Amino acid sequence: MDYANRKRPPQRKSAKGKNNRKAPQRQVPWGIVVLAIVLVVALVLGLRFIAGGNPDAPATTTEVPASTPQPTAEPIPEKPEERWQYIEELENLEVEVDVPERELGPPKLMQCGSFRKQSDAERLRAAIAMQGLESKIYPSNGGTWYRVVLGPYETKRAAEADRHTLQRANIHGCQIWNWNL
């Protein structure tokens, strides 16, 4: 069904040509109005009772006689000078921490590419050399593949630092391995 091109239904017209319907008049619920007024009056009277006691009793003020003796104020003793002991104790204290020796695993090598043609491997090696890093080309599979390898690194952190240097130069795809050549 096509709702966009649908026509409006015809309106019924009365004999006079005007709509004879009148808006329905709402009646005021007097019971709810009276209940609301009673609740408001009860709330006000309750608050007055809590705040001032009896709401019908006249308010009276009481005065304090001026002849009551004032207590004499003694001077406040001076604050004693505090001497902190922990400052002296911490100056002479030494903290000993046991740091375990870091185990060095096998040396890490980073391979940045593997090519069929030695000229492609030389091109990548030159791009790596432009970043100040030294790489080597290792032939594998009887000279059919040429791998471009950096390292060996003693720690993975040193290899990661060089990999980030190469990534900043848009040389991606370098992988760090536990290899021994």
From TrEMBL:
The keyword Cell division applies. Residues 1-23, 55-78 are annotated as: Disordered. The chain crosses the membrane at residues 28-51. SUPFAM superfamilies: Sporulation related repeat. PROSITE patterns: SPOR. Residues 102-179 form the SPOR domain. Residues 59-71 have a biased composition (Polar residues). This is Cell division protein FtsN. It comes from Pseudidiomarina insulisalsae.
